[in-house]
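Minutes, project check-in

Agenda point 3 was the complex the collaborators sent over. CS summarized: two entities, 862 residues total, and the question is how they sit relative to each other. Sequences were read into the notes so everyone works from the same version.
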Amino acid sequence: MLRPDIGTPASYTFPKPRRITVGGGTVVAIDVPGQRLASLRLVHPYGGAVEPLDAMGVSSLTSEVLEDGPDGNSSLAPALERHGAEWVSRVNWDGFITGLDAPANRLGEAVRLFADAVRRPALTADDIVRRRDQLLERFWLEAASASTLAMRSLGGQLFTGRYATPLAGGPVKLAEVAPETVAAFHADSIASVAGTLVVVGDLSGVDLEDLGKTVFGDAAATPVREVAAPAPPPGELPRVLIVDRPGSVQSALVIAHRAPSRSQVDLPRAEGISEVLGGLFTSRLNMELRERLGYTYGAGSRFDLRRDSGVFFATTQVEADTTAHSITASLEQIAKLRSSGVTAEELASVRDSNTVGLPVSYSTARAMASALVDMVVHDLPDDYVDRHRAGYEALTEEKLNSAAQEYLHPEEAVVVVVGDAERLSGPLADIGAGPVEVRSPESLWS
Amino acid sequence: MTAPASTGQVASVNLWYGVGSRHEVPGRTGFAHLFEHLMFQGSGNVAKGEHFEEVERLGGDINASTSTDRTNYYETVPEHALDRVLWLEADRLETLRDGMTQEVLDNQRDVVKNERRQRYDNQPYGTALERILRLGYPEGHPYHHPTIGSMADLDDADLDYVKSFHKAHYGPDNCVLTVVSDLEPEDVLARVEKYFGHLPARDFVPEAPDASLPQPLGGPVRDAVTETVPAAGVFLGYRVAAYGEREFDVMHLASAVLGQGQGSRLYRSLVVDRPIAADDGGGAADILPFRYTDSLLLVNMLAREGVSGDVLEEAMREEIVKLAAGITEEELDRARAVLERDHLQSISSPSGLADSISSCTQLFGDPELAYTWPERWADITAEEVRAAAERLLVDDNLLVVRFDPDTAGADAAPAS
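CS then shared the predicted structure for the full assembly.
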């Protein structure tokens, strides 16, 4: 049977959120009739990036300890569980985000518990120390996975200052965060700051004004945050860092370099070129390393763009003996993209996937809430998704090719390899990616 | 099957083929999963990689997975592309054998071997599932081996067998196709008829290997491993009823009381109160749902620094045994709420809903279960949970897989 034509896409517009100001805060809401599971997110502009250097990890630790609830001793989650609600709490470099996923018809009861948890937590010293010790141990439990260790090793290779230490404070700095520091951070940055409340789901029975009052109380309006780009560390570029993991049958690779901040980047061009290289299954890195060479289960690349700076990185995990060739093959793919540019097919693929695919991207309450959170964190307008789409629609081969020149810089890359140093040091010295340094994981954070 | 989506302009397509690793014979383990990879490598009218490329270009989501009992393939695309996706699926069902070459097989075998390295061999505790199944089901039993299979068997895969596997298992009579969208059901059915209607049923339906378990587990049975892991890890397993039986639902509630959520017993007692187990956020217990043999209730925790595997294991087993003394109504209510929330979460996206409908149709012949599953927990009583725990959560029915850190190396993890 003949391949059917793909029809004409219906025009898509991201739902216009309803915005209401309640006291010192703002509620941003999207009604999705029939979506019984509502997502609620409260955004505070205090992520890891603004932590002082003597309190690195305080926001992550505070985020954890909020789960102990107003009565302390891990009492919040069980209380929410009885309402069928799930507590959400996470910190990234630019935001402190708390929230709930809950059945829309039970949102009211759950939100009262939520507001108490965010505004009036017990924050007992015992709870804080217990959570801190758990986080510290979890750091190494998680870093026992090669890919996690590789990503956590990256910050110190690209930045000085806060970004040189992992988001949750790493295994050393976090240990120095005292219970009083957590209490002070919470009082100044969370309890007394209203924040912005995002709500998505079937809101037919939900009074947003009431919700805002419950969540914001008498907290003050959110202050504007200053940002400054951190400096790079000293050291020749490009270079290779091997983080020793004896006996590894695979190596985890990250090829990374610094990038401009989110607001400095022309996002459709930057993301577009990254997608050609490694954003899709059919992108160049995956097709080469996985589908042609069979070295890996998957390879990809993307930008991590923050308010004050950014990182571009390509990642994969490859069979140990193919490590050196995997690095040179990846660098060759980047060089080739820069020298020869994208194909018409690739342009079409990137443009189409980011325009006609929007109904797929936003087919859940969680995904819509996540887009709204992103808009709040980065001060983007309500019609941001539609503007972003227009940017993709306007992409051309020339625009993507210039983006390859502007945003991809393999000559400034640091290659982090987590694997068996004894097996890898020799081969990696000969690949022309700069000097090779070997470190043990324990020596990376002091 | 068709069902409405809660947001517009999308179509989720989900196919459940009734073939999984339980259909594999000794010497051919890992084959159902390797085969899943090959389904993306081109068919009679589709080039290698083109299936992925087409769906990604539409901004769609696409993937597949293999379990013991089934292989599912799924795409979520903008609604206007539904016909194209149905055609792609129909083409690989009808003509996959025409697109298959030795080169493609060799490449995907390497990819799968790297998937095995990434998920099992290069991960701390990565071989736990493999060890659990080996203890839980006897040699030769179709659930004795994990879906990923063994390196040796993957090496032995040959092109003729690939083709015969497709012929044996991939027919429309062995597939449930679900479309979640806001199109009218008649419209969807007409399109499916157009692309799939002419495909004949398999002319021969192979018999699945016998999955009966004549012998009880004969526990406690153990597998103790000393290797490079960051902390001692304890994995406990108990045979319980097959997925779909009432006893499965009862034990599902028991697993939630024990180890799902931060109100669960294991979290309260071993993470918060004592505290000797690493904080997993409240995810210590769950059930591996097997439709055609006994399922496995699994309980897993990692030890805190300075805590030995023996101490943690003993504490976990004590906590589990206590279930036989009874649970409170409050605990049961919380367990129901947690399982209901997870269920709601799983059907809150169009692709999740489509998968759930395919599952309930393929396994139980009842698509409505995708919506009504939580009702199965409504009339289960605290006494029923207690009695089942007393009968099943006993040493005779216990398997233990233990990982202890190798402290011989100079820079090994802290001693326990």
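Noted in discussion: DSSP finds 17 helices and twelve strands in chain A.
Follow-up: revisit at the next meeting once the mutant set is ready.
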